[in-house]
Amino acid sequence: MPRNVILIGYRGTGKTTVARLLASRLGWNWIDADQFLETKYATAIRRIFEQEGEAGFREKESVVLADLCQRERHVIATGGGAILREANRVLLKGAGIVIWIRLDADAIWARLVSDPSSSERRPPLTDKNGREEVEELLAIREPLYRSTADLEIDATGLGPEDVAKEILTRIQAA
Ligand code: S3P
C-alpha cells in the first residue's frame, strides 16, 4: 500500500467526496487541502483571492501541502491548481500515489453550473467567462496533471462511489 493517496484534478471532479469515500474503504483518514487551508488561516479562499490575489493564495497552498504531505495513511484531496508549482508537484509525488481524476471541459462545466454554491465558494481564476475559463485552464493544466499522476481515472459518467471503487481496485493492483 502507498503511504498516502493524493487526489488531483480540476474543480468539480469530485476530489473531496471521493477522498472521504475512499478513506472509509481503506480505514484511513481523509483531508481536504482547501478546507484545511481555510481553517488554518481562519478565512475563506475567496477572501484570500480578493485580498492577496492568486499569488497570496498559492503561497498558503504550498505551506499547507508541505504539512499534509508529511502524513501517513491519509487520502488527501488537493485544490485544482495544486499542480501549478513544480515544488508542489515534487512534494505530492514523494508523499504517496498520485491519482488524477479526469473529466473533459464539458463535463466539468456541467458539474460546476449544477452546484449552486460553486460560484460563491470558488473565486474566478481568469477574466474569461466560466466555460471558457475551464477550457483555457485545462489546456494549461492537463499536461501537469498527467505528468504528476501515477494513475489516471476517467470519471466520465461515474459517480463518486464508482470513482472510489475504481481507485481502490487500481491501487490494490499497483
Ligand atoms: C483552484 C481550485 C480550488 C481552490 C482555489 C483554486 C484552482 O480547489 O484551491 O479556488 O486553481 O483550480 P477545488 O479544486 O477543490 O475547487
CATH topology: Rossmann fold
Bound compounds: shikimate-3-phosphate
Helix content: 55-70%
* Principal-axes shape call: globular
- What would CATH call the architecture? 3-Layer(aba) Sandwich
User: How many E-type strands?
Assistant: 5
Structural class: alpha/beta
Biggest sheet, spatial arrangement of strands: 2-3-1-4-5
> How much is the average pLDDT?
95
Number of helices: 8
At the first level of CATH, what is the class?
Alpha Beta
Strand content: 5-15%
Short descriptors:
five-stranded parallel beta sheet; globular; 174 residues; alpha/beta; binds shikimate-3-phosphate; Rossmann fold; 8 helices
Q: What does this protein look like?
A:
The protein has helices at 15-26, 33-40, 45-68, 86-95, 105-114, 118-121, 130-148, 160-173, and strands spanning 5-8, 29-32, 74-77, 97-102, 151-154. By secondary structure, the protein is of the alpha/beta class. The protein has one domain (5-166): P-loop containing nucleotide triphosphate hydrolases (Rossmann fold), CATH 3.40.50.300. It has a five-stranded parallel sheet, sandwiched between helices. Helix 1 (15-26) packs across helix 8. The mean pLDDT is 95. Shikimate-3-phosphate binds next to loops. Shikimate-3-phosphate binds at residues 11, 34, 45, 79-81, 122-123, 125.
